[in-house]
């Protein structure tokens, strides 16, 4: 039996969970932008458009302390931050391009080293995904194998209905548990789905793109595209799938903290060695790494791509570098 929820009850669900002590994160107006932010009440939920930054911060904060240290009379006291201290969380209104990135990131954070900070947040988070009814010129999820109604990564999935409210589909056991725990807010029934967004780029041949990358580590294309790249890192910071970070001790001799902070392969010092040697010493080499990592290395390693076609890097790039256009160009080249 299909299940629906009204807009009012969706906001009531947030109120109920917030009162019960659950951390609820969802799209919220922030000045002229919409951002995924902690919500203190259902009325703050703003499902109007794609948030400016991705939802990855729910699992992978921009900066987090992993231990602190303090010099004592004899020796140094080191205190680990307990990853288990992260709260139960509901991420609500995640667009398919954001929700789908979460299981992609699971692969790297649970590979040789288990990142308990990331994994504990993933375990304790339920994701309510939301189908898109609007796309802009930068959206290209359909070109990378997703769609505006893709349920990957969601535990519960909402489809907007023509006459208001949402159809709810439980995708995982977590989604079923949420429905069961708040059954009074949901109703049996169906409805007519609102028309879905139609991102313009059609599907690309991603295997062909990977094949070209296999044989074109050196190619004039990298200079052509990336000579103008400013190395600002906006593309990586806004991306739901980019996940590089650095670990730095901050503080002084008496006390301080070890922090894990986002990093970006576009930054000039990202690969700088202590010796001063930098194996990627010019910007085209750094941009090449961005494309190679997303569409070859991660595929080779985990059989997944580090791009969900959200278009954020296209919207934000100060010099107009368009990753969808880059992929289209490679797609048009064929494998030589
Ligand atoms: S590479 Fe760009 S389009 Fe792809 S997921 Fe990241 S920000 Fe979105
Ligand atoms: S946003 Fe544009 S200029 Fe900045 S690092 Fe990315 S590709 Fe380069």
UniProtKB/TrEMBL annotation:
A UniProt-annotated Pfam family: Fer4_22
Domain 4Fe-4S ferredoxin-type as annotated: residue spans: 218-250, 295-329
Keywords: Iron, Iron-sulfur, Metal-binding
Signal peptide annotation: none
Protein name: 4Fe-4S dicluster domain-containing protein
């Amino acid at each position: 039996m299909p299940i629906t929820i009204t807009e009012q009850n969706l906001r009531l669900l947030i109120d109920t969970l917030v009162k019960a002590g659950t951390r609820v994160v969802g799209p919220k107006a922030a000045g002229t932008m919409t951002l995924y932010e902690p919500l203190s009440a259902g009325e703050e939920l703003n499902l109007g458009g794609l948030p400016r930054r991705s939802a990855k911060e729910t699992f992978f904060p921009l900066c987090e302390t992993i231990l602190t240290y303090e010099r004592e009379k004899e020796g140094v006291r080191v205190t680990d931050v307990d990853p288990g201290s992260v709260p139960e969380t509901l991420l609500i209104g995640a667009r398919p391009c954001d929700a789908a990135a979460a299981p992609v990131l699971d692969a790297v954070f649970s590979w040789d080293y288990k990142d308990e900070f990331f994994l504990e947040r993933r375990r304790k988070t339920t994701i309510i995904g939301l189908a898109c009814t609007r796309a802009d010129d930068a959206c290209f999820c359909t070109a990378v194998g997703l769609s505006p109604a893709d349920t990957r990564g969601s535990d519960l999935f909402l489809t907007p209905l023509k006459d208001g409210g949402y159809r709810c589909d439980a995708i995982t056991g977590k989604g079923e548990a949420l429905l069961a725990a708040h059954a009074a807010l949901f109703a049996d029934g169906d409805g007519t789905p609102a028309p879905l967004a139609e991102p313009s780029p059609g599907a690309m041949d991603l295997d062909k793109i990977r094949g070209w990358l296999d044989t074109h580590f050196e190619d004039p294309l990298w200079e052509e595209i990336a000579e103008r790249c400013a190395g600002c890192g906006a593309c990586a910071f806004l991306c739901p799938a980019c996940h590089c970070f650095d670990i730095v001790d901050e503080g002084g001799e008496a006390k301080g903290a070890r922090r894990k902070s986002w990093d970006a392969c576009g930054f000039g010092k990202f690969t700088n060695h202590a010796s001063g040697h930098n194996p990627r010493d010019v910007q085209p080499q750094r941009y090449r790494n961005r494309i190679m990592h997303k569409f070859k290395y991660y595929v080779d390693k985990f059989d997944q791509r580090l791009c969900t076609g959200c278009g954020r890097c296209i919207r934000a790039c100060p010099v107009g570098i368009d990753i969808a256009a880059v992929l289209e160009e490679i797609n048009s080249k064929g494998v030589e």
